Amino acid sequence: MTLIQQLLKKGIIGKEQATSLEFEVKETKKKEEELLIEKKIVAEDFLFSLKSENLKIPLKTVEAEEVPLEILELIPEETVKYYQMVPLSKTRNFLEIGMVYPEDLKAQEALKFLARQGKFNYQVFLITPTTFNELLKQYRTLKMELGRALEELKVELREERVPRTVAEFERLAEEAPITKIVAVMLRQAVDGRASDIHIEPGREKMRVRFRLLGQLHSSIFLPLRIHPAVIARVKILSNLKIDETRIPQDGRFSAK
């Protein structure tokens, strides 16, 4: 039974209004929940308690501040946004996952894949869009960490000329701001179970993308001018030649 039909059955809306709402859902391609909340037909909490009853999935109320960043980082931000699902807690290899649309088959498949890759079991809870959006704000902490590193780097670049030689890039790659930036990138990729990291220079920005479930997701955008230093840092970690740019090189490193 749809949420609109549930509201009709409970006498909260009339038949004519239900028909009108169902038509609007089809025309606008909006989800029932989105439309009902937007039109203020019922309160969000009440609507999602009905949905919980309908799906037989428990509704969970969570304070965003109670969920540590290391838990949120178990699923990359882009995946969280796309499927509107977010990790809430972890006990050993058992995760609690909050989902706004647990009935979404694609989200279910993505979660199963993550569970296989991460070798964890999970229980799904229903959460409201408000709870989800508050949790999503917590991911900004990760970006703030990158922001602080970039500010440190800007100060250093103001104090001296932009590096041009291999030796200068090597020195810059070993300094704190660049090492922090690369460390944050690696941590987000590992915690999110990404299979690949793509560091791509664009016309104005350097884009960092993570491959998850076979698809590339843009996650971080950084100033283009630091691209050589970031690449130099990765080469240093991998014991590769910094000045070799004509042919591919193969290297590896481990991190804790």
From TrEMBL:
SUPFAM superfamilies: EspE N-terminal domain-like, P-loop containing nucleoside triphosphate hydrolases. Pfam families: MshEN, T2SSE. Keywords: ATP-binding, Nucleotide-binding. GO terms for molecular function: ATP binding; ATP hydrolysis activity. Residues 173-255 form the Bacterial type II secretion system protein E domain. It comes from Candidatus Nealsonbacteria bacterium CG_4_10_14_0_2_um_filter_37_10. Gene3D superfamilies: 3.30.450.90, Type II secretion system, protein E, N-terminal domain (3.30.300.160). It comes from the Bacteria. InterPro entries: P-loop_NTPase (IPR027417), T2SS/T4SS_dom (IPR001482), T2SS_E_N_sf (IPR037257), T2SS_GspE_N (IPR007831). This is Type II secretion system protein GspE N-terminal domain-containing protein. GO terms for cellular component: plasma membrane. Residues 56-140 form the Type II secretion system protein GspE N-terminal domain. Belongs to the GSP E family.
